[in-house]
Every structure is written in structure tokens, then in C-alpha cells.
Design a protein that fits this description.
By secondary structure, this protein is mainly alpha-helical. The protein has 19 helices and six strands. The strands form two sheets. The chain has a four-stranded mixed β-sheet with strand order 3-4-5-6, with helices on both faces.
Length: about 475
């Protein structure tokens, strides 16, 4: 059994039976013997009629000086521990009398005088607080009032209070609708408060729609209109572009769903735009014509809205490899890093030419205005362009369209293109590209030497130098 040393007072009893937040410490009442004996004695002294500590606490809180009695028979009322209060009646007979009394009071409140004949009189009569509480239950609404309400075509979701509000404010022909979604609003303000209650309940069906409506109004205040035909790039960018980049949280499906006019403007801004991000980027940097691939002319793929690298330079890797600018860049990188890939023939040629004419006097993959191709080797001191045709794709000798053997070989290669596409490249190289190089060299009067150097000639290491000497003698050098 618990004992205490501090004096019994109001503050101590509150701290003993209640938590700091005001909730009851229910565990105190699980076992009557565990409650402090001094508190029991204190309650028993003040309230001799109590039968439990819980009853004593109730009397202490309500400051009850004597036990309540039944108003019909005068007997003492029992304490209801479950509801933590005293019972209203002492037994069934008294309870019936109590119910009859309550019903008479409600009927008296609910039944108006015979002088009430029109709508205004009904409202004035029911504005009384007690009558209004009785009116909230449809089954107790006066018969004439129920019949009167059925004469109006109210929405199905209207409650009794909504109907009364509409009638009191003469809104029978213009039901309040939500400014955001357009639905008829139910749960209107207190019907007797007129326009002094919650005004927002007349404009919005819920707090979320009110917030969205105000947000849309703020956006349209920036744009200056809600008609998408009058929108312009400058105003749209004020909303969807911050100081650095696109506000991506505003181009989601949910956000654009709130602003269908803006979405429609963005969808119709460029016919060839693939995404909203691309559209906004082109609007920001005034790219009105979509860039195309410099090789094939197809539209380029949009990359990003940052760093001004908006589009890829080519539509595919194949076009990138064909572009002369790409080839030039590759050549410069290889020349700078000395990362050339060379065949055995080329390695042998570099070794022989370097020993004969000097390493600094030899240029590999040389390009000149006079000869706009990558020449295999160029000897600076002799101003000599050398092309080594060591691959079978260049043919056994220069192509001659009047030579029957060359025509026969060409037809043979064409048949093999059905099996391998590599023969297509060989045909283009032998019959077109190599012929163009020869013609350019002839037009510009270049010292140009083609050496058809096969693996059969590989054993004779001086074959290359002998060919160069023969050519130099033929031009008297």
C-alpha cells in the first residue's frame, strides 16, 4: 500500500490522477487497493456517501457537496463508473418519466405558432439556438417546413443546412459553385449567418482547390492573360525558367495539368520539338530552326538545356565518322599523340624513307591545299606526294575503264558484293576515289607517285626506294 509524506491538496491530487497534458492516469483505478490510503481517507472525509475513489474524484472536480437525488422519486442516484458521472434516473419508471418530459420540450420547440405562414417567418422562428438544434434532425423538422423544401430542385448531396442557407440568401436559381472545378458546393456556411460566416465555402469545395486556384491566379498574373493565343515566349519563360535552368518541378504532368493553356502553348510552339525541355530551351536561346546533321540532313537529337551543348553534332556515329571535320580532329589528335596505326608495309616504308631522306623530312598522312586528301607520305625536300597502294582494295594497278581485264575484275567484285559489303568499298576506292586523287594531282601539276606494293614485293626491301628513284629520273630530278 502506498504512503505519502506531502500534504493533500488540489495540486497534489491533480498530479496524482492526471498526466501533465490533462489525460487521466487510468492505471490508478485498475486496483482500488493500490491507491494511496491518505487520498482515500481525504475523499471519504469530504464525501461520506462515496463508494469508490473514482466517485470521490468526480465530486472533487465538480465541487459536489451532497449526493445527487432523482427528481421524480427523491432517491439517491448511483455513480456510473463507466461514464464517470451520476445516473440521470434511479430506475426504469423514473427513466420513462424523464423521456416523456424531454419529448414534450422538443415538441414544444419544434412546433411553431399558427401565425407562421411564409418563408421569412419560418427562418426567423428557427434562428433560435435550441430550435435550430432540434431542426438538425430531419425527422423532427416541422411537417410544413419539409413540404416547403421539396418544392425546390436541390442537388442530391445538399444537407438540410445547405438548403436553408440557399433559401435564406435567395440562391435558389444560382447554386454556389467551386471557382476551381466548377462543381456545386455542399457543406455551405451556417444558414443563419448569411455572408458573415466562412465566405470561402461559397467559392471553393475544399481547401486544396482554394490553394490551387490562388496559385493559378498568381501564375496568370505573371503571364497577364489566361488565353493561350495571347501567350508569348517571354512570359512563359518567366514562369518556367529560373536564373540558371528550367524549373523541372513545374513541367511535370501534374503541374501542367493545372495549366492546360500553358501546356497547349508549349505543344504548339514548335512542330519538330520532341519534348517540353527542348521547347523551352529553344525558346530561351531563340533556336527557331531545329539543327540538322551536316552529313545526311536529318534532325539532330536534343541533348541538354545546360552548358549550351543543346544538340548532338551528328545524327549517328556513322555520320560522325564520315564528317570531314571529325576526320580532321582525329588526324590532329593522332598527330599530336603519335598514335598512328600502321601496317607492316607502312612501318617498312617509314623506316626506309627515314633512313634515306631523314626522319624530319618525312610527313605521314599529309594534307595540302593542292591535294585535299590524306597522302600516305610526303617528302618535304622533294615536294613529292607518295601513295602506297598496298591493299587489294586499290586494285593491281590504276583503274582503266577501257581495259577489258579491269572491267572483268570489276564485274567479279560486283558479284561478290552480294556476299560481302566490303567489296562495295573496294569498288568505290579503286574506280572513283583513287581516280579523283590522280586527276587532282594532274590538274595541280604535283609530283605524285603511286606505288602498287604487294606482299610479293615485301622480300625486296629496296623496292620502294627503287620506284622513287625511277620516278625522279623520269621527271629529271
Amino acid at each position: 500500500m502506498n504512503t505519502i509524506s506531502s500534504p493533500i491538496n488540489k495540486d497534489y491530487i491533480k498530479s496524482y490522477f492526471y498526466f501533465p497534458n490533462g489525460d487521466v492516469r487510468s492505471y490508478r483505478f485498475k486496483n482500488e487497493d493500490s491507491i494511496n490510503i491518505e487520498i482515500k481517507t481525504y475523499f471519504k472525509t469530504l464525501y461520506p456517501w462515496i463508494k469508490s475513489t473514482k466517485e470521490g474524484l468526480y465530486c472533487f472536480n465538480k465541487n459536489i457537496q451532497r449526493q445527487p437525488i432523482c427528481e421524480f422519486c427523491g432517491k439517491d442516484l448511483e455513480f456510473d463508473r463507466f461514464h464517470f458521472t451520476y445516473k440521470v434516473n434511479c430506475e426504469n419508471k423514473c427513466h420513462k418519466k424523464y423521456k416523456d418530459k424531454q419529448n414534450k420540450l422538443k415538441a414544444k420547440l419544434n412546433k411553431p405558432d399558427n401565425s407562421i405562414k411564409n418563408k421569412e417567418d419560418y427562418f426567423n422562428y428557427y434562428k433560435d439556438e435550441k430550435r435550430f438544434k432540434a431542426l438538425k434532425n430531419k425527422g423532427r423538422v416541422y411537417k410544413e417546413m419539409r413540404e416547403y423544401l421539396t418544392t425546390f430542385d436541390f442537388p442530391k448531396n445538399y444537407t438540410l443546412l445547405d438548403k436553408l442557407y440557399v433559401l435564406d440568401n435567395n440562391l435558389e436559381n444560382n447554386f454556389p459553385r467551386c471557382k476551381y472545378c466548377g462543381k456545386i458546393i455542399n457543406g455551405l456556411p451556417h444558414w443563419s449567418l448569411k455572408n458573415n460566416g466562412k465566405i470561402d465555402r461559397l467559392n471553393f469545395c475544399c481547401a486544396k482547390h482554394k490553394e490551387l486556384y490562388e496559385y493559378k491566379e498568381s501564375i496568370y498574373n505573371i503571364i497577364g492573360t489566361s488565353n493561350y493565343f495571347e501567350f508569348n515566349d517571354e512570359n512563359i519563360l518567366k514562369v518556367l525558367w529560373n536564373s540558371k535552368d528550367i524549373e523541372y518541378q513545374k513541367i511535370t504532368k501534374y503541374w501542367l495539368g493545372l495549366f492546360p493553356d500553358i501546356k497547349k502553348y508549349l505543344d504548339n510552339r514548335f512542330d519538330d520539338s520532341k519534348s517540353i525541355v527542348e521547347t523551352l530551351t529553344r525558346m530561351k536561346y531563340k533556336i527557331y530552326i531545329r539543327p540538322v546533321c551536316p552529313v545526311c540532313g536529318k534532325s539532330l537529337i536534343f541533348l541538354t538545356s545546360q552548358n549550351k551543348k543543346f544538340f548532338l553534332k551528328h545524327c549517328s556515329y556513322q555520320c560522325s565518322a564520315k564528317d570531314n571535320k571529325t576526320k580532321e580532329k582525329q588526324y590532329r589528335s593522332k598527330f599530336k599523340n603519335n598514335s598512328w596505326t600502321a601496317s607492316k608495309l607502312e612501318k617498312l616504308a617509314i623506316s626506309l624513307l627515314s633512313d634515306k631522306y631523314g626522319f624530319d623530312n618525312i610527313c605521314k598522312e599529309y594534307k595540302d591545299k593542292r591535294y585535299p586528301y590524306r597522302c600516305d607520305f610526303y617528302i618535304k625536300s622533294l615536294d613529292l606526294f607518295i601513295e602506297i597502294q598496298g591493299h587489294w582494295g586499290h586494285g593491281p594497278h590504276p583503274f582503266d575503264k577501257d581495259n577489258s581485264e579491269d572491267i572483268a575484275l570489276l564485274e567479279k567484285w560486283k558479284e561478290k558484293t552480294k556476299v560481302s559489303k566490303y567489296y562495295e568499298k573496294a569498288i568505290i576506292g579503286w574506280t572513283i576515289r583513287d581516280v579523283e586523287k590522280r586527276n587532282i594531282a594532274k590538274q595541280n601539276n604535283l609530283r605524285y607517285l603511286e606505288i602498287f606494293y604487294t606482299y610479293k614485293d615485301f622480300s625486296n626491301k629496296n623496292f620502294l626506294l627503287e620506284k622513287i628513284e625511277e620516278y625522279l629520273k623520269s621527271i629529271n630530278i
